[in-house]
Amino acid sequence: AHFGVWPDKISTIERGARRDDDFANAYRQWLNAA
């Protein structure tokens, strides 16, 4: 359900413009589960 919003958030994180630890943790968990 969240995938639609992730590309923008991932792009923001990659630019270092925003640190969202909760999102980063969820993203790492998603990568590990993929």
UniProtKB/TrEMBL annotation:
Superkingdom of the source species: Bacteria
Name by which UniProt lists this protein: XRE family transcriptional regulator
